[in-house]
Each structure stands twice: as C-alpha cells, then as structure tokens.
Design a protein that fits this description.
This protein is α/β, with parallel strands linked by helices. It has 2 domains: 2-124 and 309-337, Quinone Oxidoreductase, Chain A, domain 1 (Alpha-Beta Complex); 129-278, 3-Layer(aba) Sandwich (Rossmann fold), CATH 3.40.50.720. Helix content is 30%, strand content 25%. The protein contains 11 helices and 15 strands. Strands 3, 4, 5, 6, 7, 14 and 15 form a 7-stranded mixed β-sheet that branches. Helix 9 links the parallel strand 12 and strand 13 (271-274). Helix 1 (41-48) packs across helix 11 and helix 7 packs parallel to helix 8 (230-240). It is globular. The two termini are 12 Å apart.
C-alpha cells in the first residue's frame, strides 16, 4: 500500500511517500481501507515536534479519516466487512495514522458512518467535532441531543474554524441560541451558513466594545462559551458569561498566558474547562462519538461551502502541501483523497 511516513520531526518536507505492506488487524482491531483522510492542526504540530518528539523509527500522520472496514481482528463483534466508518484519533497511541491507503485501529475508533453520509463528511468529524462536543458538554449539559440545549445561549468564538463550525452546528441541533464572533465578512457568511443565529465581527466592533455588543444580543449573559483565544478574550468572556456559566478552552490562539483579577471573578461562580482531546475520559469520548454520529444521521452536521466548511482536496502525494495549508490557516477542511 502507499503511505506517507516521516522518520524525524521537522517541516513538511520530512514526509515522504513509500510503499509498505498492509498490516493485519490484531485482537480488538479492524483494518480500514481509507477513502479520505482529514488534516488537523494537531497533525502538523505532532509532525513538527511541537506536541512531543517522534518515539518510533517512523510514523504516518493523521488522526481522522473515513473509509470501509476491510478485515476484522479476533474478538471484534461490532463491525462487519464492507461497513463504512469514520475514524478518530487513529495515530494516538500508535505510529500509523490515516495518511495511507489502509490503517488498523482499535475497533472503538472506527464508528459506523450513517447511511447517506459522504466520506468527505466522515473524514471531517474526528478531532473538530469531538472537541466541539466536549466543549459543549463541559457545563450543565452532559449530552448533545435535540432539545438538550433548549433555552440556553452559547457563545462560540471563531465560528468559521473547524471546531467553531462543529460547535455551532451541534449547539443549533440541540436547541441553543448561538452567537459567534468572527473577523471578516467572508467568515461571517460561513458562520451563518453553519447556522449561527447572531454573528459579531470583532474587528468592526473592536475588542473594547465586543462585550457590549454581545450583551445587547444576550442581556442576561451567555450560558456557555467555546473559547479558542482565551488570552485575548478573557475579559470579554467574564463580561458576558452568565452566573454559573462555563468557559471551555480548547486552543491558545493569540497568546500562551492567561491572567485575570481573582476577586472580581469569584462572584461569577463560573467554571473554566480546559480541553485536550487526547486526555478526555473514555466515557466522554464514547458519548462524543455516539452524539456526533446521531447528529450526522439527522443531517445536523454537514460540510461544504453551503454548511460553512469549504473543502480543500489533496492527493496522497501532496500531503506536505496539505499540512502546509492547515498550518497557514486554511479556512474550511483540508482532506486527502485516497481513491
């Protein structure tokens, strides 16, 4: 099979295309023939050595993908050969990820792709959708399902990003009123396409007035915040969060340090939840996989420009360019075509 590998951490040029044997699935594993692979920031950061150094002779990048079950290992009763699946965290805990024609993964990481869902959508789930799910369930609501967020107002910063877009789509499906902040008219259109009820351009409003603009939309405050840039937004977040609300932080865009006035924050009784998907409890990962799949089956999670997620396709031999596009901040979803 064809696969992308790298034998040292570094820029995208360390990756090369090789032929290597197809692995046999071990006990509890399935072999998946990949149709699409998704590319996330975590992929290029791991390859570059920003999220740990390479500990195996070589590795294949890629946490997310979608394809068809090709072979089943001993003890697996949850899958059948020919079953379409979407994959999450494929490279976590092993050297081989989804930038290859085949990959073996623990069966729990290969989730049935609902009928009618495209492989483009399946490969776009994984890290973004499951991170969004955890951000939304860090407060009072433990599951994302129709009606579970009824009466709540959710603020999503960076609504045109992959996690932000998934958070908007999931929260709207669950009945929330969604406000999102963006930086341009183009990104405002994408956030609206995702289903956001209110879009605020923070560059037009200015950070000094952003809190007021959000409070005009939600006078009682917002119940939950999905935060991508806490170092920049924390003062705004504290100004708009409702008492006993939750600020769920999944990235450090805009700065690596967060400071706040403690005494002034006490009265808010708020919760900060920091999220790194690879350390989330297994029960929460399982809940995310189940809820994301249900949202796909219901047509609530979508991709494509009409859903606010422009798709960018690359061939397997163009994986370096795909990584570079994500590192450069490509708007939408970068995918690798494997057939």
């Amino acid at each position: 099979m064809r696969a992308i590998v790298y034998a040292e951490n570094g820029p995208s040029s360390v990756m090369k295309l090789i032929d290597r044997p197809v692995s046999k699935p071990g006990p509890g594993e399935v072999l998946v023939r990949l149709v699409r692979a998704g590319v996330n920031p975590t992929d290029w950061k791991l390859r570059a050595g920003l999220s740990g150094t390479l500990s195996t002779p070589e590795a294949t990048p890629g946490q997310d993908g979608a394809g068809v079950v090709e072979e089943i290992g001993d003890g697996v009763s949850t899958h059948i050969v020919g079953q379409p699946v979407w994959l999450f965290m494929a490279q976590h805990g092993q050297a081989w990820g989804t930038a290859a024609e085949y990959v073996t993964v623990p069966a729990r990481k290969a989730v049935e792709l609902p009928a009618g869902a495209s492989f483009d959508l399946g490969a776009s789930l994984g890290v973004p959708a499951m991170t969004a799910h955890r951000a939304l369930t860090s407060g009072a609501v433990e599951r994302v399902a129709p009606g579970s967020f009824s009466g709540l107002t959710i603020l999503v910063h960076g609504g045109a990003g992959a996690v932000g877009n998934a958070a908007i789509q999931l929260a709207v499906w669950a009945g929330a009123t969604v406000i999102t902040t963006i930086s341009s008219a183009e990104k405002a259109a994408l956030a609206k396409a995702a289903g956001a009820h209110h879009v605020v351009n923070y560059r037009e409003v200015g950070l000094g007035r952003l809190g007021n603009a959000i409070r005009e939309i939600a006078p009682e405050g917002v119940d939950q915040i999905v935060e991508v840039a806490p170092a920049v937004n924390n003062d705004v977040d504290r100004a708009v969060i409702a008492n006993r609300g939750t600020i769920a932080i999944y990235a450090n865009n805009g700065g690596d340090e967060l400071t706040m006035p403690l005494r002034a924050t006490f009265s808010l009784n708020l919760r900060y939840q920091f999220i790194q998907l690879y350390g989330v409890e297994e029960t929460q990962i399982r809940a995310a996989a189940d809820d994301v799949t249900a949202a796909v089956a219901a047509g609530a999670l979508r991709v494509g420009s009409e859903a606010g997620v422009p798709l960018h396709h690359y061939r397997l031999e163009e994986t370096a360019a795909a990584h570079d596009a994500v590192e450069a901040g490509a708007v939408g979803k970068v995918l690798i075509d494997l057939e």
